[in-house]
Amino acid sequence: MIMKHRIGYACINTSISATTNKSCKLANCTPERLRELIYSNLSGLKEVIEWNYQHNIFLYRISSVIIPFASHPVNTVPWWDENKKQFDEIGRLIKKYRIRVSMHPGQFVNINSPNPEIVRLSIKDLEWHAKFLDSLGVDSTNRLIIHVGGVYGDKTSAMARFIQVYKNIPENIRVRLSLENDDKSYNVWDVLNISDQTGIPVVFDVLHHQVKNTNQPEDDDIRTILEKCFSTWNEQTGIPKIHYSSQRPGARPGVHADSINIDDFTEFYFRFRDLDFDIMFETKDKDKSVLEAFKRLQLESAKGFYNKSA
After folding, report:
1. Does 3.20.20.150 match the CATH number of domain 7-309?
2. In this predicted model, what pLDDT tens digit does every residue of 142-188 receive, in sequence order?
3. Rounded to 10 degrees, what is the CA torsion of 222, 225, 231, 233?
4. Which CB contacts under 8 angstroms, 24+ apart, belong to 153-156?
5. Is there a contact between 102 and 142 (Cβ–Cβ < 8 Å)?
6. CB 292: neighbour CB atoms within 10 A?
7. Dihedral sign, CA of 57, 63, 67, 71?
8. Most buried among 22, 130, 198, 306, by the most CB within 10 A?
């Protein structure tokens, strides 16, 4: 079956032993140890990229701990230079296999903080992520995805600070950034508002929208929401992306389940299959949910559900 949409997973491959997130304690962090870890993580990334291609997975999120302590002063290793051969080789494979990669900097990245030091550290963290993707030689369709940040008691002011900081961050970061709705503070309408003022493309998170919305009728019109989000993307930013996950039973709203609810996803997939977008799964079982989705979608296609829903 040739998939209309790329479906991918985040960071950890559960099917092979290759890892991309080896780290160490800060107290044990030396240049020599960092060099060992970086080399190992990049070697693991190459294996994962090869495995993904062999299993028809063309969407993948690279771990944000692949360079340990990348934005911390303890890391003085010029990894982009010392590991250039690895970066060149991995980047060549990514482009050869037409795999789209992304990174998702941590929740502590808050460029809308009223604290200038937090903003400075947030930008510093974004800088190394952008440098990582730049070192792979991949274009701007390979994205960095962030949340708006905190509310800090005044959402309107917090959104205005985000816009101001965003407009002044380095160009090599700005050209890669995408903005995602979250499950606590900023719903999809807030994010689309920011996008209208900045041009930043919007990643629609399905589960986050179920948890955080305005409780108005327009929240139920998912097709219109998708179309609005997708309109924020262009040729330079690439095919629109969404995040898809299932609610973990018994957990607080917004907690990802171990696996995709395959029945819900199948219905969602065929309902919107006429739209052009990539789908990033956010599950604990990572690649396994992607492979399970492939099997189910192929089965439903063979039964004719695909044609009925077209």
Report:
1. yes
2. 999 999 999 999 999 999 999 999 999 999 999 999 999 999 999 99
3. -80
4. 155/185, 155/186, 155/190
5. yes
6. 17
7. positive
8. 130
